[in-house]
């Protein structure tokens, strides 16, 4: 398990390096990444070119942080954070070949956390040999 600090604002955090370290030397198989939180997800996206900010903007457009949500504890609009995992699932599975992540050229494994109420997240990594 790794701990990721996301802070008190919506965030996309690249965890590819940690995932790569985890599978290093493992051989062929699958890496399963799981976030045991009701208000966060895992995405395979390009980072560093603005795509991470674009993703957060798209989440805001699709799931506005306003008072429409029935789930009302936490900060205003927090109910939308509980809907997020239906759109950005709390897991991803990535092929591993010879102990290396078999990601596409521009793909990164990212924790997506729109919930500023929880500044620290746990991510579970599992290797399934193949």
From TrEMBL:
Gene3D superfamilies: YjbQ-like (2.60.120.460). It comes from the Bacteria. InterPro entries: UPF0047_YjbQ-like (IPR001602), YjbQ-like_sf (IPR035917). Pfam families: YjbQ. Belongs to the UPF0047 family. PANTHER family: UNCHARACTERIZED PROTEIN YJBQ-RELATED, UPF0047 PROTEIN C4A8.02C. This is Secondary thiamine-phosphate synthase enzyme. It comes from Rugosimonospora africana. The lineage of its organism: Bacteria, Bacillati, Actinomycetota, Actinomycetes, Micromonosporales.
